[in-house]
Write a structure and sequence with these properties.
There is one protein chain. 26% of the residues lie in helices and 28% in strands. Strands 5-2-1-9-20 form a 5-stranded parallel beta sheet. It has 2 domains: 176 residues, FAD/NAD(P)-binding domain (3-Layer(bba) Sandwich), CATH 3.50.50; 139 residues, FAD/NAD(P)-binding domain, CATH 3.50.50.60. α1 packs parallel to α7. β1, α1 and β2 form a beta-alpha-beta unit. The radius of gyration is 21 Å and the shape is globular. The chain is α/β, with parallel strands linked by helices and 386 residues long.
Amino acid sequence: MTTPTSAPHAVTVIGAGFGALAVVRELRRRDATLDITLIAPRAELHYLPGIIWIPSGLRTREQLVVPLANFFRRMRVKHVVGEVTGVRAGGRLVDISSDGSVSEVRNDALVIASGGRFIKKLPGIEHAITPCEGIAAAERIRDRLKQMQGGTIACGFAGNPNEPNAMRGGPMFEFLFGIDEQLKREGRRDQFELVFFSPTTEPGNRLGPKAVRHLLAEMARRNIRTHLGHKLKNFEADKIITEGGPVAADLILFMPGLTGNLWFDQTELARSPGGLLKADAQCRVEGSAHVYVVGDSGSFPGPDWMPKQAHMAELQAAAAAANLLAGLRGQAISASFKVELICIIDALAAGTLVWRTPQRNIVLPPSRLFHWIKRAFERLHLRQYQ
């Protein structure tokens, strides 16, 4: 903790997801005097890693929505309700819209952790459900599965052609394997065909070569058909059209690549080729003083397999908080973050552990233990915000 020597610095955090909340924790841990304002439409954390369990009934909306009022009170954070519409004055002014009114928030330093936006340019994409759009999307999958008596379910993902690591493929494997297991438990698996599709021939390659081999072998073991290596052209109500031919489907789950929020266009902040905020290794937005980015909003230097996941966002949050405070104090900015991918690909009955760093890639085979570790981690993670 620091001893105040002048008026407290004002820091604005945009977002209420893993990255934003981790920034708040890290800032407050390092400085008790800061005046922290967080801008988000709701004082809620939606625990999106848990939506993979909504179709099976293992989780409900109520279990995955965490009110943040207590957390904000403990952290002494002012929550401003609204949607960010732009950033001006080199990051010192944030424009907000709320219930038809507009306002602005001033700051001495800014952290942008507002997530990414799915690229929905393919014609007919409205026929597909994008699971990671939120809890409502997972509920739609749950409801559709209840209504279906049989048919073909197609799961797939694609990336941002201008930003190789701006994608969220991992959850699609969990939905795919989870639905397979769910249908088996319900005694209905033989009434359905499952298909996995992707324009890449190595789905999950950001998880590492070992993971790709495991995932493809798991699909084969589960009798899941694959349609790989063919560029997607468009969607129809009952099929996916690719350059390698159509894929018939009664239910389509599709995760497109990520790009930046629309409001980024209303700023002069540096952008990457894929539309994200261009950051350096210290999480600074290039060319802007005291402006930082963490999580899905940013494009960071590093390997092309750098993940877009909560764990990575929290590692970046720690670096951003340390550098933000150093910058405000006139000190050298030197903190960086390690690049690490760690996840459990869950399939209801068991989970596969994947760990990747620049030095190693480890894949541990499916185990019931990993499923329970994932559930325990959820409880522990959410507890700090309750």
